[in-house]
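Lab meeting, item 3. Inverse folding demo.
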């Protein structure tokens, strides 16, 4: 775990382009293009933009699930050539296995991914203690033996985030994790994620359609243009931490949200690229 933000980039994209197959590459039809990015260790960034702009494609590139057609990606000082083991992921759908308890769902990555898989039987008690601590930290201390169908949507998403963090990753990638939840539950989980990040200082890359969510949580917000996706706006969020929900009603907060909404609105109207 990183203890503090340093000057050495943890994630670095150097002129990254991606076409989904050789035929599209031959036609120069890219899903994302000219992505340049430096994310510092411990930093929380959010990526917003219109549907179909390539946000999820960017996530696949970051985790090594897709290889760039051009350019270079480094994470934690290593060239990304395949799926990363140092990252955890959570999505809009929690995807908890209905026949497993909350605790067993959280433990699942340790059962199937090396080096933990071969150690699981011998270290099960240690891993269970770690999982129970995570569940306690997100308000699920009394629900370890419950099944997914006994949990609310917000509780299921909390468990999903614990599952993504159980192997103590250096980077957490979140793809619309709160999009299916009601507004009150969503804001509760913003605070849960805020507290987890403050305590453990892992890197976070959040893809979201919710501009308020991005400004509340992130150190920096990137706006992607409609496909082919590229970063057209980079906005530092200089609001002090720790942030409480009351900050979302301040002029400083709403000004940033309106600024980002203006950029996205301008892209939808004109399709033009906005300069950084």
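The presenter then showed the designed sequence:
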């Amino acid at each position: 775990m990183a203890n503090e933000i340093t000057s050495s980039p943890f994630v670095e994209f150097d002129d990254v382009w991606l076409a989904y197959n050789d035929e599209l590459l031959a036609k120069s039809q890219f899903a994302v293009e000219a992505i340049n990015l430096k994310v510092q260790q411990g930093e929380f960034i959010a990526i917003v933009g219109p549907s179909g702009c390539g946000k999820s494609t960017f996530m696949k590139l970051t985790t090594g699930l897709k290889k760039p057609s051009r350019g270079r990606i480094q994470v934690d000082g290593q060239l990304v050539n395949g799926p990363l083991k140092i990252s955890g992921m959570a999505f809009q759908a929690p995807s908890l296995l209905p026949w497993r308890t909350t605790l067993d769902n959280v433990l699942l990555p340790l059962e199937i991914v090396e080096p933990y898989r071969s150690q699981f039987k011998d270290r099960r008690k240690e891993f269970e203690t770690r999982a129970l601590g995570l569940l306690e930290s997100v308000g699920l201390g009394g629900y370890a033996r419950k099944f997914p169908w006994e949990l609310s949507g917000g509780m299921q998403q909390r468990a999903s985030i614990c599952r993504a963090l159980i192997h103590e990753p250096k980077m957490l990638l979140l793809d619309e994790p709160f999009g299916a939840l009601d507004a009150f539950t969503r804001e509760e989980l913003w605070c849960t994620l805020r507290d987890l990040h403050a305590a453990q200082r892992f890197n976070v890359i959040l893809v979201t359609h919710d501009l308020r969510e991005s400004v509340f949580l992130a150190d920096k917000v990137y706006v992607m243009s409609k496909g082919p996706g590229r970063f057209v706006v980079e906005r530092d969020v200089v609001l002090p931490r720790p942030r409480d929900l009351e900050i979302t009603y301040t002029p400083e907060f709403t000004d940033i949200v309106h600024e980002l909404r203006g950029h996205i609105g301008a892209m939808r109207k004109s399709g033009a690229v906005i300069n950084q």
